[in-house]
Amino acid sequence: xxxxxxxxxxxxxxxxxxxxxxxxxxxxxxxxxxxxxxxxxxxxxxxxxxxxxxxxxxxxxxxxxxxxxxxxxxxxxxxxxxxxxxxxxxxxxxxxxxxxxxxxxxxxxxxxxxxxx
Length: 117
Fold this sequence. Notes:
This protein is mostly beta strands. Helices cover 0% and strands 38% of the residues. It contains no helices and nine strands. It has strands at residues 12-17, 20-26, 36-39, 45-50, 56-60, 75-79, 82-86, 93-95, 114-116. It has a three-stranded antiparallel sheet, with no helix packed on it. A hairpin with a 5-residue loop joins strand 3 and strand 4. The protein is globular and about 35 Å long. The protein starts with 11 loop residues before the first strand and ends with a strand.
C-alpha cells in the first residue's frame, strides 16, 4: 500500500491477525526507514516499517538467529530491488515483503498483511 504524506493524518496502521485486524499505531508515528515494535495480543511482537514511497511492511520482530526481539531496530535498504531490514545484531537481511532471509535461504520470519485505515 502506498499513501501520499498529506493524506496520512488520522490513519491507523493495522496488522491482520487470523481473521481480525489489530491496531498498531497512528500512521503519523512511522518514520520512513525506521521500525516500530508492536506487542501482539498473544505476546509475540511485530516490527512495522514504512518506506519513503509510503509502502507499509510488517514482520516478526524476533531475529531467528539470536532469538532477540530487535528487527524493529534494524537498518532498512534494498538489494536487487527487494526491500529488506538488516538485524542490528548479526546483520542478516530479511525481505520485508516475504520474510525470507537474503543471507540464508533456509531461514525466514513471519510477515503480516498490513494496512492504514
